[in-house]
Amino acid sequence: MQQQADALRTEALELIASAHDVASLEAARLKYLGKSGAITALSEGMRHVPKEERPVIGKLLNDLRAAVTNALEASQKRLLEAADLAAFASLDLTLPGTFPSPGTLHPLTQLMDRAVRCFRRMGFAIADGPDIETEWHCFDALNTPPDHPARNEQDTFYLPDGRLLRSHTSSVQVRVMETTPPPVRIIAPGSAYRRDEVDATHLAQFTQMEGLYVAEKVSLADLKGTLEFFFRELFGAGTDIQFRPHFFPFTEPSYEIDIRTEALGGEWMELAGCGMVDPAVFEAICERRGDRVYDPEKVSGFAFGFGLERLAMNLSRIPDIRMLVENDLRFLKQF
Amino acid sequence: MKISINWLRDFVDCQLPASELEALLRRAGLEVAGLDQRGAAIDHVVAAEILESTQHPNADRLSVCKVNDGSPEPRQIVCGAKNYKVGDKVPLALPGAVLPGDFKIKTGKLRGVESEGMMCSAKELRLAEDSEGLLILPPETAPGTPIKDLFPTETILELEITPNRSDWLSHLGVARELSVFTGVPVKAPEPALPPTASAEGQVRIESEGCPLYTLRRISGVKVGPSPQWLRDRLAAVGLRSVNNVVDVTNYVLFELGQPLHAFDAAKISGPLIVRAATEGEAFRALDGREYKLPAGSLVIADTNGPAALAGVMGGEGTGVTESTTEILLESAVFEASGVRRASRAMALFSDSSYRFERGVDPEGVANASARAVELILQVAGGSAELSLLVSGKCPERGKVSLRHARVRNLLGISLTNAEIESTLARVGLEKLAAGDETRWSIPGYRRELRREADLIEEIARVVGIEKIPSLAQGPFAASSDADAAYDFAMNFRRSLAGMGFHEARTSTLVSAADVSHFGDAVALKNPFGDDQSQLRNSLVPGLLAALRRNLDQGAKSIALFECGRVFRTAGEGQRLAIVVTGERHETSWHGETARAWDVFDLTGAVRQLASLGEQDVVPLPSPVAPFGACAEVFLHGKKIGIVGQLTPAVAREIGAPSPLLAAEFDLDLWRATATAKTSVAALAKFPGSARDIAFLAPLALPYGEVRSLIESLKEPLLESVRLFDLFTDSKGEKIPSDKKSMAISLTFRSPERTLTADEIQAAADHIKAALREKLSVDFRE
After folding, report:
1. What is the DSSP code string of B519-585?
2. Residue range B45-150 in CATH 2.10.109.10
3. Is B605 on the interface with A (CB under 8 A)?
């Protein structure tokens, strides 16, 4: 019996070792462990073994069965792993991926949204006003003299009814204060229009971001801190920011803001106008509202504005402003 | 406005290099748009007179000249230029000179003839960008004069002056500003002639708009060319020399900012009267043109009519000429608005009107007159009458109060009273009253300082914004309706980009043809051209133009969208539009074959975007232009937009190769109609079962009727309906050509239990029976 078992073990292990595919392994399993397999048959011989020998023979047969089973399992594992490897070997990951490419947001939208997110972090809400404005909202309320050149039909688009296309988004400041008592802390992204000949650096319609903060005790220090924070958020902590005294009819004192940063080519670049809201603007608002909530003796505020096109052009080295409105997919897909 | 740094240094002893000067002026609010270096600082280049010129023996194109360089012996120079004649004075570079470009001059032979130097062109001396031949110097130039004395080096600043600062429109004004920021005192010109004596007569103001008018008579002048220093100064600021008298008036304008005018006294009849012109009154100006004056424009007139248009330009008939010997010199103040009106009305602009429009210093009128007299006597001789003829008077100085607490609050900086006061004193203001609230007298050259806010600005400017702290603080802000609108549109933008559409931004200004299909539109009164004469009333035409542009560039697949404003007579609104054409996807190695965008891609995209059901896209029986077939899109029963395929005519016009599709939505209405999800549906606990049904239907039967019939049955176990196959056979081989085969997957589910096969079969049979009965379809068994 012992000899028989040993012979069977040697034979079975050899056959299993020589099986090179799942089918021959299965054949080997059936040959030894199947219903009519050799080891099964041997086990059935147990009946004829004398009772006292049974434990010894039983152990012998169990060991044999275990050895064959282990060899089968090991072989099976080896074959599966080889098959898995073979399957991956035929997978060519250099083939181009097939997911369709997504679309893009316009570079001005992306830039505007960056700016909006930043101002929202600082507690600004968005405000809105019409593109078609009254002369009062666009000029009169903003302390613009009646014979100011910006009002000229050479420079500003008018409608036959006397209204105009706003020449700056500053008109939204007026709209907000007209309807909302202080404190107001708003930004207003939107279109503005100037009657310019379109060329590489000018569009008749362009995009501005306006800002206004009016409350009690707002100071030039608030203006400075707010805009420094904003531009460093936008361009990085190492950005140089310079406020240069300037003149706007609706703010006093007024400044232009120059920025110097690697992101914009490392040159000083004039980016924004800002200042403390002129008391004359508050007076015009008070008169229109019929109350004194914007009394310049009680409240103060700052306002600012900047154009997005020039910023986008410098951030992405766009050589011609018209590329921003031509909507050439070869351009849009780069953003 | 051009400012010469040399001229500036006449008034303020400031030796800062140009770059630092520029930085300082910027800090003061004077923008330096450009720096122009002029002159020739080259050693060993002198003026030389050409004594004789002969043909070079060995070269056709060269001459051999003998020149006088100021030394006793003539010098021999070989020269290639042709633009001179014997007797001309030209620049001569002597051996040892180094011309710009490191060009060293030495004695040498040119084709065998010795040349002891080189005669120069303006370009070779960097006096001009480009020049032909030798630079011919003025005839009075003495031979031997170093060229650096003839063309002294000079830096010209091109300044951009903000409209509030008329005082910066002169060298004295800019010098004052330099003084404020450097502490170096200003030396204003103090003309030798005392301007105090004054008398009435010969001049009368009869109209508003001229608070002060002065005249000074100068006799025995000799009009002629100006001396070189005067020409140089005018050239530095971009002016051409006219004659010595006119040049002096221009000089004083650029020096002190006061426009002046010189009349030829012999051509003036009777007293000069400042009066309003009558409508259409004729005036021939110094520019030689005849003007018809609008009523009310201010003129200086004698008995013959207008001799000058006040503050704008003198008259041709009364101007200074070569034969003038006696002049009347005007120095006056004309109000800004009147000058601006007259100047605009006649499109006549001058250095004079530019300054009056911004306002001149009334306190400087007499001094400017005296300064001009002094210079005229110096360059044109003659003698001045001591008395100044004056009409009107210098307006009183403005007085402004300042609360120091307000300065500190508005600027956010703790300045002491002393700091505030010394700052304003530096600017030239005179303190009238002391304390926590001070009162200040404003000098004539800063008349724009009228209010407390103006003084606060002045303090901020002089103290410098770098001294102001940076505060980072602010209140909470509630979100606004505009915030909601922004987010609503931005969500769609992101979704559409994620779906493969590219965002475009097109112009609001469009042509009349562009607005013709989309209802009423708003037109501009003063458009820049016909193609930008209207405000768009739809985003579609702009997007189609962008699409066409991309087609022209060879793009194969174009899918664009835009979120933007449209304009109707009733008001402005926010829209969203999409246009697509070309390949939906290309043939790939993966087995997909190329396919063009079709209208179902777009209706599908629209449904995804708005989470709409199939029933919310409702075909319009008669399509509206420019659509050839279209459906309206409904949200909660409100029509929010339209989607469809444009007519082949439109597609042909822009060269679109495959179906041209478009959709447009009213975003305002969409946002107003949209509702937030308030609860989620329970997740199914029991398995659903699908049953597929397939049938032949009449070719003309829309799928929508099948779907709405099934929905109308309100079969409680039916969860969803999905069309998964549609087949037609125009040849009638597989199915009759007047039929179509539809296959629909019906999913049944109960929230309470697993359905039995019998229940599912009964529900499916119910649906099949209804389809058979109501829509005459044949089930394929």
Report:
1. S--EE-SS-SSGGGSEE-S-SHHHHHHHHHHHHHTT-SEEEEEEEEEEEETTEEEEEEEEEEEEEEE
2. no
3. no
Domain B482-673 sits in CATH at 3.30.930.10
Q: Say yes or no for a CB contact (<8 Å) between B500 and A101.
A: yes
Angle between helices B351-358 and B336-346 (to 10 degrees): 140
**Tens of pLDDT, residues B283-304:** 999 999 999 999 889 999 999 9
- Partner A, chain B 413-432, Cβ-Cβ below 8 Å: 413
Q: Which residues contact B731 (CB under 8 A, 6 or more apart)?
A: B737
Query: Which of the 8 DSSP states describes residue B315?
Result: B
Going by pLDDT thresholds of 50, 70 and 90, the confidence category of residue B196 is low
Q: Is B23 on the interface with A (CB under 8 A)?
A: no
Mean pLDDT along residues B190-201: 66
Superfamily of domain B689-779: Ferrodoxin-fold anticodon-binding domain (3.30.70.380)
Cβ contacts of A159 on chain B, cutoff 8 Å = 522-525
Report which DSSP code applies to A154. Answer: T
Taking the CA of residue A83 and the nearest CA in chain B, the distance in Å comes to 24
Chain B closest CA to A36's CA: distance in Å? Answer: 43
- Taking an 8 Å cut-off on Cβ atoms, the answer to whether B411 and A217 are in contact is no
CATH number of this structure's domain B198-392? 3.50.40.10
> What interface predicted TM-score (ipTM) does this complex get?
0.87
Instruction: Pick the more confident residue, B392 or B488.
Output: B488
> Nearest C-alpha of chain A: how many angstroms from B453?
7
